[in-house]
């Protein structure tokens, strides 16, 4: 885990219970493999995030016991999803949990389904995000959002889900436009998304899980 002189970023990663995660992937991966891939995606995302320049810690908001144990083993802090009221409520709850111990923390929401995530690419996004009170990165389709940040003392105000790029723009967050950060934008919801992530090069847990299934 890396830190920078001002304490670094705390990332908040929301994760549904695995039994419900990545439902749209079932058509391509099958119902048995789907939750296992969802966990592998989250493991590779968290592992890469913890290695990213400027990241102090990662808080995963989840009520899934199996996922919680696996992600805690990587070094993540597990925050129970007490609101149980959807993605944005989970993110706001995670930010509050982080800032109870570090009131001035810079925070960023990061999707849990970025299996191709590269630490250096996320580090570049964080470096740009640090220049603005709130900033976000659109997904590869330029419809949704994979990353949303808030500086010290600034509310995250997440508006994830569906066409969230438009909502985050309307809320005043600055859109980060960087070339060469495809791994931070490549979330996986469908078989086509998974194929694109595999082409980028996924992390070891996703690769192993997919290879076993293909074999």
Task: Draw up the topology in text.
Layout: E1 9-14, H1 26-29, H2 33-50, E2 55-61, H3 65-72, E3 77-79, H4 87-101, E4 106-110, H5 119-129, E5 134-138, E6 145-150, H6 164-170, E7 174-175, H7 182-185, H8 191-200, H9 204-214
Parallel strand pairs: 1-2, 1-4, 2-3, 5-7
Antiparallel strand pairs: 4-6, 5-6
Helix pairs in contact: 2-9
Helical segment count: 9
Query: Cα-atom Rg, whole angstroms?
Result: 16 Å
Strand order across the biggest sheet? 3-2-1-4-6-5-7
> β content, as a range?
15-25%
Structural class comes to alpha/beta
Spans with pLDDT under 50 lasting ≥5 residues? 1-5
Q: How many domains comprise the coordinates?
A: 1
Task: Kindly provide the name of the CATH class.
Answer: Alpha Beta
Mean pLDDT: 95
How helix-rich are the residues, as a percent range? Answer: 40-55%
Describe the protein in words.
By secondary structure, the protein is α/β, with parallel strands linked by helices. The chain has one domain (9-210): Spore Coat Polysaccharide Biosynthesis Protein SpsA, Chain A, CATH 3.90.550.10. It is 41% helix and 16% strand. The protein has helices at residues 26-29, 33-50, 65-72, 87-101, 119-129, 164-170, 182-185, 191-200, 204-214; strands spanning 9-14, 55-61, 77-79, 106-110, 134-138, 145-150, 174-175. Strands 3-2-1-4-6-5-7 form a 7-stranded mixed beta sheet, sandwiched between helices. Helix 2 (33-50) packs antiparallel against helix 9 (204-214). The longest helix is centred in the N-terminal third of the chain and has 18 residues, at 33-50. The radius of gyration is 16 Å and the shape is globular. Mean pLDDT is 95; it is low at 1-5.
